[in-house]
Design brief:
about 500 residues, Pectate Lyase C-like, about 5% helix, about 35% strand
Length: about 500
């Protein structure tokens, strides 16, 4: 008998005892004739790739391997260790994974990667039946909870919400189809970060969250929540967030709402359409450094980009295309101290380009507004405090000249040219309809514009280099595994 042995050392107050251990089992050798109980699977080691399969797996005897997968994601969450990748396979009956109203996926250790099996439609739901109003069943539940850093949630169809906690720094949510909404506080958000200043400290806010290649649509009415917080992406106090290559449509009110001391927030290469409001920066306690660029806003019924409550202090709206929105850029109650609005295309059949609900424009010392294209001007184009101030670019430029001071720019080089959209569908219903007949080769100002002192490229709208991908890499209309790609020409 060539059993390898090792000695374990147990320390007690009065001395030391040597125990004979089996090297293969790593535990004390059983007494001769002792009954052997059922073997309990060990937790998955750090960095391991694990599997969840409703049809083939078992939470009692599975070990997370491809041959012996676990049955449920909530069991797998408690077994996986730091750095693990957990691949979840679709149920053969097409139903979602459902955990009695409790979270289905949880990232409770660092560097955990949750991934839908390639080519499979993997659904996760807060409710037993897909499409049931989450607030009627479980008004305080989130489908996915991220509680530790560097988590990745990839490729799932989610009915309900993803909640990112204060420790969810550097988390990535990609390739997901999200609908429904609902979280532990009853908001209709499909992605929400915790923390609500001023009662929270900076340690209670997550940092550097990335949401990419997702489709977000059709959130449902929450309990006891007014329209102010009816956003698909709702953040409180987050520090650093990028939302890119996503599609937003339908829904109750707002696509993205950055609120209460958020800063370094970016929305780029996204497609917002057929919804009340696209993006809103709102902060009773201040919001700073919001950059909205290279997006398409089409058929937005209320305001495409809104600024409210004296926030943000620095706000950039550049290289976007606005088509047939009720109001393209609007703000009220002193919103926006330092504003940049340049290189955008504003194209209308009806509606207005800018609309302010106060006198916030007056006396502004810094506002960079230039190289925009205003196409389809009408009698409601520029309104301040409910009053019409201009219906042509020339009149708007004159009004700005009377109001702005210091180094503020006044749309001096802006035009009213036809942007030349290709509109291949004939109805402006797809993001590719906003491709244009020609693009600059390198996104730089022309020689004549440089001679005239231009700092930025000439009017181009959302497409600067002509090869950007606007919206998800592959459109999805139901829970699907959208392949995440990086668009060319990205800064």
């Amino acid at each position: 008998m060539n059993t390898r042995l090792r000695f374990g050392v147990c320390r007690f107050a009065g001395g030391m005892i040597l125990a004979l251990l089996s090297a293969d089992q790593g535990q004390a050798a059983p007494r001769p004739g002792a009954a052997k109980g059922p073997e309990k699977p060990e937790p998955a080691p750090p960095g391991r790739t694990c599997h969840v399969d409703w049809d083939k797996g078992s939470d009692e005897t599975g070990d997370g391997s491809a041959g012996k997968p676990w049955k449920t994601p909530w069991h797998a969450a408690g077994q996986a260790q730091d750095g693990a990748t957990i691949i979840v396979h679709a149920r053969s009956d097409g139903k979602p994974y459902y955990n009695g109203g409790q979270p289905v996926l949880k990232a409770i250790v660092p560097d955990l990667r949750w991934q839908a099996a390639k080519g499979e439609i993997v659904k996760l739901s807060t409710t037993k039946e897909w499409g049931q109003n989450p607030y009627e069943a479980y008004p305080r539940a989130s489908t996915v909870v991220v509680g530790e850093a560097n988590a990745v949630i990839q490729g799932f169809g989610v009915w309900g919400s993803i909640l990112v906690g204060a420790r969810g720094d550097r988390c990535t949510i990609e390739g997901c189809d999200l609908s429904g909404g609902g979280d532990y506080q009853g908001f209709p958000a499909m992605i929400r970060t915790t923390g609500s200043p001023p009662n929270k400290t900076p340690d209670d806010w997550c940092e550097d969250l990335v949401v990419r290649n997702c489709t977000l649509h059709d959130n449902v009415k929450a309990m006891n929540q007014g329209p102010a917080n009816d956003a698909m992406v709702l953040t409180y106090g987050a520090k650093g967030m990028i939302v890119e290559n996503c599609e937003f449509h339908g829904g109750l009110n707002i696509g993205i709402k950055w609120k209460d001391r958020c800063n370094r927030m970016t929305a780029r290469y996204c497609y917002f359409h057929d919804m009340p409001t696209g993006i809103q920066g709102d902060g009773q306690y201040g919001v700073d450094w919001i950059d909205t660029h290279n997006n398409v806003f089409a058929n937005v019924g209320r305001i495409a980009v809104a600024v409210e409550n004296g926030a943000p202090n620095r706000f950039s709206v550049r290289n976007n295309t606005f088509y047939n929105c009720a109001v393209d850029v609007g703000w009220w109650r002193g919103g926006g101290a330092n504003v940049e609005i340049f290189n955008n295309i504003f194209c209308h059949r009806s509606g207005g380009f800018y609309q302010s609900y106060d006198e916030g424009w007056k006396g502004r010392e810094y506002a960079y507004q230039d190289y925009n294209c205003f196409s389809g001007a009408n009698d409601t184009c520029w309104r301040i405090n409910g009053k019409k101030v201009a219906t042509t670019v020339a009149a708007w430029r004159q009004w700005l000249g009377d109001q702005l001071v210091g180094d503020a720019c006044r749309d001096e080089h802006s035009t009213s040219d036809d942007p030349g959209f290709l509109n291949q569908s004939g109805a402006f219903k797809r993001q590719e309809d906003f491709n244009r007949k020609s693009y600059p080769k390198d996104g730089r100002p022309s020689a004549s514009a440089i001679e005239a002192g231009a700092k930025w490229p000439e009017v181009m709208g959302a497409y600067v280099a002509g090869d950007e991908v606007i919206g998800p890499a592959r459109k999805s209309t139901s829970p699907a595994t959208t392949k995440a790609t990086q668009p060319a020409g990205r800064p």
